[in-house]
């Protein structure tokens, strides 16, 4: 099995989750209120009062075949809007 | 007279707590109001201002200057982004220019609320229908902003087709803050007509608490604005000048229109404040969603880091001085 | 008369803000009240309703209809789950039937509070001891629900032995909402007797603010209920019919009992509302913990997506019409 | 060393943490307010006002021997109540 | 008389809600007030107490016993840590001894506020300048604590050079709670002088709501204190004895000083409470940051698990009995 | 690419982030309000009203060379103040 970690802006979260569903992932986990720093600068929770949101961390455990589809569906979103995605090995407990 | 009004405004709790927040950042205090507490205050203020506006609108009725004023407000929210865009294109690309332009066409509810509180301390009457004008100025500015993007730029985005008008209109008219404000206005309007007793039972929450909650929220806004101010240094003198001069220009135009409409001084001040303020809630959220190419630190920092404090501290009393000078007192 | 009462209820801020929340979901506004703000309002309402009930209980004393009414309330919370279970087993397995049955035996504090506010707008008196009845109807329903599971099913669970009665009773009597409600009731009771001056100093917080805070909270409840309503479509017509007809049946039974107890109209309405409402806080939380085999979207969606809005909007005024019809006014 | 990621309902969190302690793990980290989707449907924070809670993400860094014990103590909870558990390789920094 | 005062204090909402929180933990209820809601109440209380103190300070003026009292308060916050350190070194290493000593030199704002509320129920007047004393006792204690660490220990830390005085003073004077308290005091002071009308508009928020919000917050403090109490068992009898006897000793010293200063009974009680209370907010936060070698469960648990409940429940009325006994009523 | 997971007290977060920047990491992600248990005992959110804070989970995806620098800059902080750091393999999506 594979483990996919995605960090995206909460803004793109819906689009990313849709792409994950479309890739046939058996499930996913979302952590909101995540902050950080990347090539586009730092993201904080300071604007929270406006509902602007921060980043979200999305975690998917899935088969390698699903990773390929995620690659096709999610990577363009990351390239365009920013955010990162990484894949590691994982075994079911 | 101007300076005395400025001073009077400066020494009220809302302005002082705003300063306290700004200074906290400048001196590096670790004072913070953690998420999602600021959201609580921002939802509360929208609900309360809408509800109170609805009550008053019911009492005053929809007649006299109501419809002309609201129409003028909507026209301003369409016009401001257009001439702002022309100015901003001198130095910025279309994406950033359109996003900032939309921001200045829209309004800042907190600036409006602070102006209302200032009118109260000056014992000047204002009408409930001004809240309707407030509510109706967010959406047009968003739409003009996106039209400008569409006309001036042409890049394709990965997850969308040409232009998703449905999503744009949706965002313009149904984003949380516009929705809550308009909804509360309608509820206040209905309640005042049908259940005056229950309208009264709302007042300790929506009315008595209001001034204190506004002051508390402005403490947070001071913190946030000061954090933004730092970003602004990078934005350069052009944007700094824009974020101070454009509100002044819009305010002058607003005074002229308010005079033309024959508004009373209280309503005139609120009208001017609507013209002069810039949105840092609904419009930035919409732009961040629909124009990711624009740099948020530009459109948020100008509106929040400079225009907002300028209006809260100097602008409101200055605009009142203008109003006192150019608008004849009825009677 | 019914329709006029329904209309009068509909046009109060609590019902209108509930609608505003429902509509926000239906039209797809992104309005949301982020966690844990709703918890703040729910804790506040429990604390305030308990404290006010305790004050009034002290003033009225524990005599007359107090003990018979409370006993009848407890009996209803034992009886409702049993006959509900029988009905539900027609279509559902024991786990789901027991969980839903327990939900309807228990009560909805927010429905109760909304009924109290409605009584106020109708200028009808009600007594503080009804809050004690409210507080004492959650635990028995939970216990009956778990007994039903135990009797009707027999599956072993991985981490427990036979039935952990300690844990069950603990959950039934010490879950946060029951605990806070009962605790605040006792505190109000003690304070009223020993320190009337300090009881008075609590009132701006527990009393004046109450109606507005309830309205704000119902905005969130409207959002949540509407989200649940969608789930309900999958649950099918049987559950939809159950969640509208069972409250009506329980209400009729409640009116009969209230008449037998000789309650005044205000107390009678509250008694009926206790019978007719279903829990979407304490009982679902207990069931989710102790009967993981049952599908939460069934027992939460029926109670929250249909029964709750039905009671808030149509039920309360309808039940008052029933009360007015069948309960003679004292005097 | 191994890295174990568990996603469970907040409802079962106490039982899971007890099992982790019993397995002799040197420590663990818990992230609450986590949402997601799995075979049992979507979990959101919408019911937060009731204290129902959402999911929790538990992270454990431990020796392979502890993983075996976690396997015995935690996997049955996951099978019965839902939730996922995955193991990857990790080296101390 | 003592017991009657203790009882009168026990049966007020603040003390009763504190108990309700303690009992929730003891009986294992799952009642909890999730983060960051407690922070909302703690920020609110600091803002309100500061603002009210500022108003009163403006009305009473800075004269008479004001400066001597404030100086005495600062001296106590310097002296207490020194003799506490000597006592604590008997059993503990320098890091832990210094951290606990600093904790007892500083103050607990919630204890102070509860004492104020108790004075109100006793109809005893107190002056606004006592809030200034409150605000000025946190920073010196932090500085003495860090000096003690510096003098008594010598270990190098990985990320710092010798002693970062800048950071220490910064933390002592600009941590969030000291900053908000002092800032609100100044704002209240300025507002009362320049805009009495707007000061009045703050009162529903800062004054009317205060007692209820304090009670709500003490519910949470009860939960937290009871959780800490468990930790304390491990700390052993020495620390338990210290956390009960040191406040008593400080209180006796405080009574003597208050008598020397010629304070009125209300101010005297507040002075004694400042001496007798220990900080569980600003100082622990500072120590956790600057003395990571000390075990937080020691300094937080003593201050919060024992000294705080002791003061809230028994201490305040006991100290008032002392004040009544030793301080002559003016007139 | 490597994946680095750090769990530290919110107290040390600023120092850790500074060290990450200094190590030349291309970005990082921070999750606050994290609780857990380790050799120094349990960390909860109970003291939240005081601003004491809980733990933070910091996630860094970076080149192996950056890991070595993180090793030098962050590991001493972990040793002195507590907290854990682990490194795994990861590939860009
Ligand atoms: N190398 C990285 N490691 C961990 N998180 C990262 C990294 N780069 C970016 N991120 C996260 O992804 C978010 C969006 O990145 P970006 O928009 O590309 O700057 C940042 O705010 C970080 O939370
Ligand atoms: N394949 C997966 N990858 C990541 N998280 C998952 C996955 N499957 C389930 N989850 C998480 O585990 C929770 C419980 O799953 P379940 O109860 O089995 O539906 C879900 O709400 C998700 O947060
Ligand atoms: N083996 C572990 N696995 C996961 N998290 C850990 C582990 N050990 C410690 N932690 C986390 O690191 C924090 C600080 O650890 P410490 O101060 O060393 O006790 C703990 O509160 C946990 O959140
Ligand atoms: Na404008
Ligand atoms: Na019921
Ligand atoms: Na002290």
Low-confidence stretches of chain A: none
Number of domains of chain A: 1
Distance between the termini of chain B: 22 Å
CATH architecture level-2 label of chain A? 2-Layer Sandwich
Cα-atom radius of gyration of chain B = 19 Å
Q: Would you give the CATH topology of chain A? A: Alpha-Beta Plaits
- Which CATH architecture of chain B is right? Up-down Bundle
Order of the strands making up the biggest sheet of chain A: 3-2-4-1-5
Query: Largest interface, counted with CB-CB under 8 A?
Result: B-C, 32 and 34 residues
Instruction: Give the CATH level 1 class of chain A.
Output: Alpha Beta
What is the number of independent domains of chain B?
1
Nearest-angstrom radius of gyration of chain A?
A: 13 Å
Bound ligand species: adenosine monophosphate, sodium ion
| Structural shape of chain B | globular
Under the CATH scheme, which class of chain B?
Mainly Alpha
Keywords:
heterohexamer, A: 93 residues, alpha+beta, Alpha-Beta Plaits, five-stranded antiparallel β-sheet, 2 helices, 41% strand, B: 331 residues, mainly alpha, Na+/H+ antiporter like fold, 0% strand, binds adenosine monophosphate, binds sodium ion
């Amino acid at each position: 099995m594979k483990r996919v970690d995605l960090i995206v802006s909460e803004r793109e979260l819906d689009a990313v989750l849709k792409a994950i569903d479309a890739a046939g992932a058996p499930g996913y986990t979302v952590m909101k209120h995540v902050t950080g720093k990347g090539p586009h600068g730092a993201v904080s929770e300071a604007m929270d009062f406006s509902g602007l949101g921060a980043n979200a961390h999305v975690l998917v455990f899935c088969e390698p075949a699903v990773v390929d589809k995620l690659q096709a569906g999610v990577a363009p979103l990351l390239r365009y809007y920013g955010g990162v995605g990484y894949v590691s090995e994982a075994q079911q407990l | 007279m101007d300076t005395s009004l400025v001073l009077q405004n400066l020494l009220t709790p809302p302005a002082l707590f705003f300063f306290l927040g700004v200074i906290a950042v400048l001196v590096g205090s670790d004072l913070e109001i953690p998420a999602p507490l600021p959201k609580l205050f921002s939802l509360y203020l929208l609900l309360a201002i809408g509800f109170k506006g609805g009550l008053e609108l019911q009492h005053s009725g929809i007649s006299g200057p109501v419809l002309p004023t609201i129409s003028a407000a909507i026209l301003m929210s369409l016009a401001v982004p257009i001439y702002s865009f022309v100015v901003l294109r001198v130095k910025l690309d279309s994406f950033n220019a359109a996003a900032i332009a939309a921001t200045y066409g829209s309004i800042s509810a907190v600036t409006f609320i602070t102006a209302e509180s200032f009118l109260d301390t000056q014992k000047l009457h204002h009408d409930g229908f001004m809240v309707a004008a407030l509510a109706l100025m967010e959406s047009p500015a968003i739409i003009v902003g996106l039209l400008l993007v569409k006309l001036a730029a042409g890049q394709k985005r990965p997850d969308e087709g040409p232009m998703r008008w449905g999503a744009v209109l949706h965002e313009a008219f149904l984003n949380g803050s516009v929705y809550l404000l308009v909804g509360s206005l309608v509820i206040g309007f209905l309640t005042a007509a049908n259940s005056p007793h229950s309208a009264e039972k709302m007042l300790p929450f929506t009315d008595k608490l209001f001034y204190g909650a506004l002051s508390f929220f402005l403490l947070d806004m001071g913190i946030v604005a000061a954090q933004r101010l730092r970003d602004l240094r990078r934005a350069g003198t052009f944007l700094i000048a824009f974020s101070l001069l454009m509100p002044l220009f819009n305010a002058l135009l607003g005074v002229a229109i308010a005079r033309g409409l024959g508004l009373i001084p209280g309503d005139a001040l609120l009208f001017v404040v609507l013209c002069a303020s810039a949105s840092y809630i609904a419009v930035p959220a919409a732009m961040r969603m629909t124009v990711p190419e624009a740099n948020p630190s530009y459109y948020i920092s100008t509106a929040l880091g400079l225009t907002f404090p300028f209006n809260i501290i100097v602008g409101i009393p200055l605009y009142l001085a203008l109003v006192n000078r150019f608008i004849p007192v009825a009677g």
